[in-house]
Amino acid sequence: MSVEITSSNPVVKAIISGTAPAPACLAAARGMLPLPQVDLLEALVFLAKSSESEIATNANKTLDNQDTGAIIGLLESVEVAPTILAHFAAKQGLSERLYEVVLANPKTPDSAVLQFSRQTQNGTLLELVALNQQRLIRTPAIIDAILANSFRTVEADRRAGETKREFFEKERGAQQIANELRAQGKDAAAEFVEKAEFAGTLDQSDSLSIEDAILIAEYIEVPDSEIDDSWLSLEYIEEFYEESPEEREAIVNKIIGDIRVEEDDEITGERISAISRILKMGMKDRVKLAMKGDREARNILIRDPNRVVAQRRYSKIRKLPNRKWKKLRQCEPCRMMFYAK
Protein backbone atom coordinates (compact mmCIF):
# COMPACT_ATOMS: atom_id res chain seq x y z
CA MET A 1 0.00 0.00 0.00
CA SER A 2 1.43 3.37 -1.00
CA VAL A 3 2.13 5.89 1.76
CA GLU A 4 1.82 9.62 1.20
CA ILE A 5 5.16 11.41 1.53
CA THR A 6 5.11 15.09 2.40
CA SER A 7 8.84 15.70 2.87
CA SER A 8 10.98 16.58 -0.11
CA ASN A 9 14.09 15.28 1.69
CA PRO A 10 15.57 12.37 -0.32
CA VAL A 11 16.55 10.47 2.84
CA VAL A 12 13.00 10.61 4.20
CA LYS A 13 11.62 9.62 0.81
CA ALA A 14 13.95 6.63 0.71
CA ILE A 15 12.95 5.52 4.20
CA ILE A 16 9.21 5.77 3.57
CA SER A 17 9.35 4.28 0.08
CA GLY A 18 11.30 1.30 1.45
CA THR A 19 14.51 1.80 -0.53
CA ALA A 20 16.71 2.90 2.40
CA PRO A 21 19.01 0.22 3.86
CA ALA A 22 18.18 -1.21 7.29
CA PRO A 23 21.14 0.50 9.05
CA ALA A 24 19.92 3.90 7.82
CA CYS A 25 16.41 3.14 9.03
CA LEU A 26 17.72 2.09 12.44
CA ALA A 27 19.83 5.24 12.68
CA ALA A 28 16.81 7.34 11.83
CA ALA A 29 14.73 5.46 14.40
CA ARG A 30 17.30 6.36 17.05
CA GLY A 31 17.20 10.00 15.96
CA MET A 32 20.81 9.91 14.86
CA LEU A 33 20.42 11.17 11.29
CA PRO A 34 21.08 14.89 10.76
CA LEU A 35 17.59 15.77 9.53
CA PRO A 36 15.43 18.87 10.09
CA GLN A 37 13.01 18.08 12.90
CA VAL A 38 9.88 18.11 10.72
CA ASP A 39 11.53 15.62 8.34
CA LEU A 40 12.77 13.48 11.22
CA LEU A 41 9.29 13.35 12.73
CA GLU A 42 7.79 12.16 9.45
CA ALA A 43 10.39 9.40 9.21
CA LEU A 44 9.93 8.42 12.87
CA VAL A 45 6.14 8.18 12.57
CA PHE A 46 6.55 5.84 9.61
CA LEU A 47 9.26 3.74 11.31
CA ALA A 48 7.20 3.44 14.51
CA LYS A 49 4.94 1.05 12.59
CA SER A 50 7.78 -0.99 11.10
CA SER A 51 7.51 -4.76 11.07
CA GLU A 52 11.11 -4.82 12.37
CA SER A 53 10.64 -4.72 16.14
CA GLU A 54 14.01 -3.10 16.85
CA ILE A 55 13.32 -0.26 14.45
CA ALA A 56 9.74 0.22 15.69
CA THR A 57 10.79 0.18 19.36
CA ASN A 58 13.54 2.74 18.83
CA ALA A 59 11.33 4.99 16.70
CA ASN A 60 8.60 5.04 19.35
CA LYS A 61 11.14 5.75 22.07
CA THR A 62 12.59 8.65 20.08
CA LEU A 63 9.12 10.06 19.47
CA ASP A 64 8.32 9.83 23.20
CA ASN A 65 11.48 11.78 24.00
CA GLN A 66 10.61 14.71 21.73
CA ASP A 67 10.34 18.06 23.49
CA THR A 68 6.64 18.96 23.52
CA GLY A 69 7.26 22.69 23.44
CA ALA A 70 9.50 22.37 20.41
CA ILE A 71 7.12 20.26 18.34
CA ILE A 72 3.99 22.32 19.05
CA GLY A 73 5.25 25.00 16.68
CA LEU A 74 5.79 22.37 13.99
CA LEU A 75 2.32 20.91 14.48
CA GLU A 76 0.78 24.34 13.92
CA SER A 77 2.30 24.55 10.44
CA VAL A 78 0.21 23.75 7.37
CA GLU A 79 3.36 22.20 5.91
CA VAL A 80 3.50 19.40 8.48
CA ALA A 81 2.78 15.88 7.23
CA PRO A 82 -0.76 14.62 7.96
CA THR A 83 0.79 11.38 9.22
CA ILE A 84 2.58 13.32 11.99
CA LEU A 85 -0.65 15.01 13.04
CA ALA A 86 -2.49 11.68 13.01
CA HIS A 87 0.22 10.11 15.18
CA PHE A 88 -0.05 12.73 17.91
CA ALA A 89 -3.85 12.76 17.74
CA ALA A 90 -3.85 9.03 18.49
CA LYS A 91 -1.23 9.15 21.25
CA GLN A 92 -2.49 9.13 24.84
CA GLY A 93 -1.31 11.29 27.72
CA LEU A 94 -0.01 14.35 25.87
CA SER A 95 -0.56 17.96 26.90
CA GLU A 96 -3.92 19.59 26.26
CA ARG A 97 -2.18 22.37 24.36
CA LEU A 98 -0.62 19.87 21.94
CA TYR A 99 -3.99 18.25 21.27
CA GLU A 100 -5.53 21.69 20.70
CA VAL A 101 -2.93 22.44 18.03
CA VAL A 102 -3.41 19.08 16.34
CA LEU A 103 -7.21 19.35 16.31
CA ALA A 104 -7.11 22.90 14.97
CA ASN A 105 -4.79 22.06 12.06
CA PRO A 106 -6.84 21.62 8.86
CA LYS A 107 -4.35 19.00 7.65
CA THR A 108 -5.14 16.63 10.49
CA PRO A 109 -6.95 13.72 8.81
CA ASP A 110 -10.64 13.40 9.59
CA SER A 111 -10.07 9.75 10.44
CA ALA A 112 -7.63 10.80 13.18
CA VAL A 113 -10.09 13.32 14.63
CA LEU A 114 -12.81 10.65 14.53
CA GLN A 115 -10.66 8.22 16.51
CA PHE A 116 -9.69 10.97 18.94
CA SER A 117 -13.35 11.88 19.49
CA ARG A 118 -14.16 8.28 20.31
CA GLN A 119 -11.40 7.76 22.86
CA THR A 120 -10.69 11.09 24.56
CA GLN A 121 -11.82 11.72 28.12
CA ASN A 122 -11.36 15.49 27.80
CA GLY A 123 -14.69 17.25 27.32
CA THR A 124 -13.05 20.59 26.57
CA LEU A 125 -11.22 19.09 23.61
CA LEU A 126 -14.48 17.58 22.37
CA GLU A 127 -15.89 21.12 22.37
CA LEU A 128 -13.00 22.15 20.13
CA VAL A 129 -13.80 19.31 17.74
CA ALA A 130 -17.48 20.28 17.74
CA LEU A 131 -16.58 23.88 16.84
CA ASN A 132 -15.15 22.78 13.48
CA GLN A 133 -18.49 22.57 11.68
CA GLN A 134 -16.86 22.15 8.29
CA ARG A 135 -15.10 18.99 9.46
CA LEU A 136 -18.28 17.64 11.05
CA ILE A 137 -20.22 18.16 7.84
CA ARG A 138 -17.47 16.49 5.83
CA THR A 139 -17.29 13.50 8.20
CA PRO A 140 -20.63 13.04 10.01
CA ALA A 141 -19.28 10.06 11.95
CA ILE A 142 -17.38 12.58 14.10
CA ILE A 143 -20.74 14.00 15.23
CA ASP A 144 -21.89 10.56 16.31
CA ALA A 145 -18.57 9.97 18.09
CA ILE A 146 -18.97 13.19 20.09
CA LEU A 147 -22.57 12.41 21.01
CA ALA A 148 -21.62 8.87 22.04
CA ASN A 149 -18.68 9.97 24.21
CA SER A 150 -19.77 10.00 27.86
CA PHE A 151 -17.11 12.64 28.66
CA ARG A 152 -18.63 15.24 26.33
CA THR A 153 -19.62 18.57 27.85
CA VAL A 154 -23.04 20.16 27.51
CA GLU A 155 -21.58 22.62 25.00
CA ALA A 156 -20.00 19.87 22.89
CA ASP A 157 -23.29 17.98 22.92
CA ARG A 158 -25.23 21.10 21.93
CA ARG A 159 -22.95 22.06 19.04
CA ALA A 160 -22.70 18.54 17.64
CA GLY A 161 -26.45 18.06 17.98
CA GLU A 162 -27.22 21.36 16.25
CA THR A 163 -24.94 20.52 13.33
CA LYS A 164 -26.53 17.09 13.01
CA ARG A 165 -30.05 18.53 12.96
CA GLU A 166 -29.26 21.48 10.69
CA PHE A 167 -27.22 19.73 8.02
CA PHE A 168 -28.36 16.13 8.14
CA GLU A 169 -31.58 15.26 9.93
CA LYS A 170 -33.78 18.02 8.48
CA GLU A 171 -32.70 17.40 4.91
CA ARG A 172 -32.41 13.69 5.32
CA GLY A 173 -35.59 13.61 7.35
CA ALA A 174 -38.44 15.27 5.48
CA GLN A 175 -37.05 15.13 1.97
CA GLN A 176 -35.60 11.64 2.18
CA ILE A 177 -38.82 10.30 3.69
CA ALA A 178 -40.75 11.88 0.82
CA ASN A 179 -38.34 10.47 -1.77
CA GLU A 180 -38.59 6.98 -0.30
CA LEU A 181 -42.39 7.18 -0.22
CA ARG A 182 -42.48 8.19 -3.88
CA ALA A 183 -40.19 5.29 -4.73
CA GLN A 184 -42.80 3.03 -3.11
CA GLY A 185 -45.56 4.63 -5.18
CA LYS A 186 -47.02 6.50 -2.19
CA ASP A 187 -47.25 9.93 -3.78
CA ALA A 188 -50.01 11.21 -1.50
CA ALA A 189 -47.99 10.39 1.60
CA ALA A 190 -44.91 12.05 0.07
CA GLU A 191 -46.91 15.24 -0.60
CA PHE A 192 -48.14 15.26 2.97
CA VAL A 193 -44.65 14.98 4.48
CA GLU A 194 -43.16 17.61 2.17
CA LYS A 195 -45.85 20.20 2.93
CA ALA A 196 -46.33 19.45 6.62
CA GLU A 197 -45.37 22.12 9.12
CA PHE A 198 -43.40 19.50 11.07
CA ALA A 199 -41.05 18.94 8.11
CA GLY A 200 -38.65 21.61 9.36
CA THR A 201 -38.62 20.56 13.02
CA LEU A 202 -38.14 16.79 12.92
CA ASP A 203 -36.36 15.40 15.99
CA GLN A 204 -36.48 18.69 17.85
CA SER A 205 -37.84 18.75 21.38
CA ASP A 206 -41.65 18.48 21.60
CA SER A 207 -41.80 17.65 17.89
CA LEU A 208 -42.05 14.53 15.77
CA SER A 209 -39.11 12.23 15.32
CA ILE A 210 -38.17 10.91 11.89
CA GLU A 211 -39.69 7.57 12.89
CA ASP A 212 -42.92 9.33 13.91
CA ALA A 213 -43.15 11.05 10.51
CA ILE A 214 -42.70 7.74 8.68
CA LEU A 215 -45.46 6.08 10.71
CA ILE A 216 -47.87 9.00 10.26
CA ALA A 217 -47.27 8.97 6.51
CA GLU A 218 -48.67 5.43 6.47
CA TYR A 219 -52.13 6.85 7.25
CA ILE A 220 -52.29 9.01 4.12
CA GLU A 221 -54.65 7.85 1.36
CA VAL A 222 -55.89 10.96 -0.46
CA PRO A 223 -53.65 13.04 -2.80
CA ASP A 224 -53.63 16.83 -2.79
CA SER A 225 -55.39 16.88 -6.15
CA GLU A 226 -58.56 15.49 -4.54
CA ILE A 227 -58.91 17.96 -1.68
CA ASP A 228 -59.34 21.69 -1.25
CA ASP A 229 -57.34 23.05 1.66
CA SER A 230 -57.21 26.68 0.51
CA TRP A 231 -59.44 27.64 3.45
CA LEU A 232 -56.63 26.69 5.87
CA SER A 233 -55.01 30.10 5.57
CA LEU A 234 -58.25 32.07 5.44
CA GLU A 235 -61.47 31.93 7.42
CA TYR A 236 -60.36 29.57 10.20
CA ILE A 237 -56.99 31.07 10.99
CA GLU A 238 -58.23 32.16 14.42
CA GLU A 239 -59.01 28.55 15.28
CA PHE A 240 -55.35 27.56 15.10
CA TYR A 241 -52.93 28.15 17.94
CA GLU A 242 -49.82 26.53 19.35
CA GLU A 243 -50.71 24.08 22.08
CA SER A 244 -48.50 23.56 25.11
CA PRO A 245 -47.18 20.06 25.94
CA GLU A 246 -49.64 19.97 28.84
CA GLU A 247 -52.57 20.80 26.55
CA ARG A 248 -51.55 18.11 24.08
CA GLU A 249 -51.23 15.56 26.86
CA ALA A 250 -54.72 16.48 28.03
CA ILE A 251 -56.08 16.01 24.49
CA VAL A 252 -54.39 12.59 24.25
CA ASN A 253 -55.99 11.54 27.54
CA LYS A 254 -59.39 12.82 26.39
CA ILE A 255 -59.25 10.91 23.11
CA ILE A 256 -58.11 7.73 24.85
CA GLY A 257 -60.95 8.09 27.36
CA ASP A 258 -63.52 8.69 24.63
CA ILE A 259 -62.41 5.63 22.68
CA ARG A 260 -62.55 3.44 25.79
CA VAL A 261 -66.09 4.58 26.56
CA GLU A 262 -67.43 4.44 23.01
CA GLU A 263 -65.81 1.19 21.93
CA ASP A 264 -66.21 -0.51 25.31
CA ASP A 265 -62.88 -2.24 24.87
CA GLU A 266 -59.35 -1.95 26.23
CA ILE A 267 -57.24 0.27 24.01
CA THR A 268 -53.90 -1.23 22.98
CA GLY A 269 -50.51 0.31 23.73
CA GLU A 270 -49.86 0.57 20.00
CA ARG A 271 -52.99 2.65 19.51
CA ILE A 272 -52.12 4.90 22.46
CA SER A 273 -48.71 5.49 20.86
CA ALA A 274 -50.42 6.34 17.56
CA ILE A 275 -52.66 8.89 19.28
CA SER A 276 -49.71 10.49 21.07
CA ARG A 277 -47.78 10.60 17.81
CA ILE A 278 -50.60 12.33 15.93
CA LEU A 279 -51.07 14.88 18.71
CA LYS A 280 -47.43 15.92 18.43
CA MET A 281 -48.43 17.57 15.16
CA GLY A 282 -49.73 21.12 15.06
CA MET A 283 -53.38 21.82 14.34
CA LYS A 284 -52.95 22.52 10.63
CA ASP A 285 -51.13 19.24 10.10
CA ARG A 286 -53.85 17.41 12.04
CA VAL A 287 -56.51 19.01 9.84
CA LYS A 288 -54.67 17.82 6.74
CA LEU A 289 -54.36 14.34 8.21
CA ALA A 290 -58.10 14.33 8.93
CA MET A 291 -58.76 15.20 5.29
CA LYS A 292 -56.17 12.89 3.72
CA GLY A 293 -55.86 10.06 6.21
CA ASP A 294 -57.36 6.60 6.45
CA ARG A 295 -60.19 5.44 8.68
CA GLU A 296 -58.02 4.99 11.78
CA ALA A 297 -56.60 8.51 11.53
CA ARG A 298 -60.07 9.98 11.08
CA ASN A 299 -61.44 7.90 13.93
CA ILE A 300 -58.84 9.45 16.22
CA LEU A 301 -59.16 13.02 14.95
CA ILE A 302 -62.97 13.15 15.13
CA ARG A 303 -62.40 13.28 18.90
CA ASP A 304 -59.99 16.22 18.68
CA PRO A 305 -61.35 19.08 20.88
CA ASN A 306 -60.51 21.59 18.16
CA ARG A 307 -63.68 21.82 16.08
CA VAL A 308 -61.96 22.54 12.79
CA VAL A 309 -59.79 19.44 13.14
CA ALA A 310 -62.70 17.21 14.14
CA GLN A 311 -65.03 18.46 11.41
CA ARG A 312 -62.47 17.84 8.68
CA ARG A 313 -62.80 14.16 9.50
CA TYR A 314 -66.27 14.21 7.97
CA SER A 315 -65.27 15.86 4.80
CA LYS A 316 -62.19 14.35 3.20
CA ILE A 317 -63.19 17.26 0.99
CA ARG A 318 -63.02 16.67 -2.74
CA LYS A 319 -62.60 19.65 -5.03
CA LEU A 320 -66.00 20.67 -6.32
CA PRO A 321 -67.04 23.25 -8.91
CA ASN A 322 -67.72 26.66 -7.39
CA ARG A 323 -71.45 26.41 -8.15
CA LYS A 324 -71.72 23.24 -6.07
CA TRP A 325 -69.81 24.79 -3.18
CA LYS A 326 -72.18 27.76 -3.36
CA LYS A 327 -75.14 25.43 -2.94
CA LEU A 328 -73.39 23.63 -0.09
CA ARG A 329 -72.79 26.88 1.75
CA GLN A 330 -76.45 27.78 1.37
CA CYS A 331 -77.43 24.51 3.04
CA GLU A 332 -77.48 25.05 6.81
CA PRO A 333 -76.79 21.39 7.78
CA CYS A 334 -73.85 21.36 5.37
CA ARG A 335 -72.57 24.61 6.81
CA MET A 336 -72.78 23.10 10.26
CA MET A 337 -70.83 20.05 9.13
CA PHE A 338 -68.16 21.71 7.04
CA TYR A 339 -67.83 25.25 8.31
CA ALA A 340 -69.35 25.39 11.79
CA LYS A 341 -67.66 27.56 14.38
Produce a short descriptive summary.
The protein has 341 residues and is mostly helical. It has helices spanning 10-17, 22-29, 37-47, 53-64, 68-76, 82-90, 96-104, 110-119, 123-131, 133-138, 141-148, 154-183, 187-195, 210-217, 245-263, 269-279, 283-292, 295-301, 307-315, 322-330, 332-339.
Structure write-up:
- The protein folds into three domains: 10-162, no CATH class; 172-221; 230-339, no CATH class.
- The protein has 21 helices and no strands.
- The protein has helices spanning 10-17, 22-29, 37-47, 53-64, 68-76, 82-90, 96-104, 110-119, 123-131, 133-138, 141-148, 154-183, 187-195, 210-217, 245-263, 269-279, 283-292, 295-301, 307-315, 322-330, 332-339.
- Helix 2 (22-29) runs parallel beside helix 4, helix 5 (68-76) runs parallel beside helix 7 (96-104) and helix 6 (82-90) runs parallel beside helix 8.
- The model is unreliable at 316-321 and 323-341 (pLDDT under 50).
